[in-house]
Write a structure and sequence with these properties.
The chain is an all-alpha fold. The protein has 2 domains: about 1-80, no CATH class; about 85-155, no CATH class. It has helices at about 1-10, 15-25, 30-45, 50-55, 60-75, 90-105, 115-125, 135-145, 160-185. Helix 3 (about 30-45) packs across helix 5 and helix 4 packs across helix 5 (about 60-75). The longest helix has 24 residues, at about 160-185. The protein is elongated, with a radius of gyration of 28 Å.
């Protein structure tokens, strides 16, 4: 509960932040930087991080990182500090890919949800730019402010093939179990008498 409150009540601590951020937002031309400034400005005006993230369709973690960066270094802290890694897409292209990802998977994608490899394929096909496995997630998080979901493991009942394999294994196990019982001299299907099983043995 305390951790949740700390994350929710994250605040901008720099003096005159609202005025400085509002002025910077009017001057800024790049859409990527505009998103970061607008998010921090909303927090500086008293809005909570989760609400800002939802309203702007970005990850809460990204908003928290931007606020921390601004608190430490001011407007410079909102710039991309990772050396040697420049965004390969222009502002208009970034907006297009952001809207494309917000729409989710389409029938031609052949998947229910977009994974890193699917996004890489879309970028290469539609925007003629290639990203590696690690750089695509950096692009999603730092350039688009988006997060990705880790897939939950499927239960065997959701997979027909796994369910069929489970039934076959279960039947074979039962048959083998029955053979062992008969080899010990016990009757198959006979009841176990009360008190005959001792947990201490």
């Amino acid at each position: 509960m305390e951790v949740w409150l700390m994350r929710t009540l994250l605040a901008v601590t720099r003096a005159g932040a609202v005025k400085a951020l509002a002025a910077a937002l009017r001057r800024e031309k790049r859409s990527v930087n505009q998103i970061r400034i607008r998010a921090v400005l909303s927090v500086a005006r008293g809005d909570h991080v989760p609400r800002v993230a939802r309203s702007m369709s970005v990850a809460e973690r990204a908003v928290r990182n931007w606020v921390h960066g601004y608190n430490r270094r001011g407007l410079v802290g909102l710039q991309d500090q990772r050396k040697g890694r420049q965004c390969r897409l222009g502002d208009s292209q970034i907006e297009k890919i952001r809207e494309r990802l917000r729409e989710g998977a389409k029938p031609e994608d052949g998947v229910c949800s977009l994974r890193g490899c699917d996004i890489r394929r879309i970028l290469e096909k539609d925007f003629h730019v290639r990203y590696g496995r690690s750089s695509i997630y950096y692009f999603l998080h730092h350039q688009l402010g988006m997060s990705y979901l880790k897939p939950r493991p499927l239960h065997r009942k959701t997979d027909p093939e796994a369910q069929a394999a489970f039934k076959k294994t279960s039947k074979k196990s039962c048959k083998n179990s029955g053979k062992r019982i008969r080899a010990d001299g016990s009757r198959s299907g006979s009841r176990t008498r009360a008190g005959s099983a001792n947990k201490d043995h």
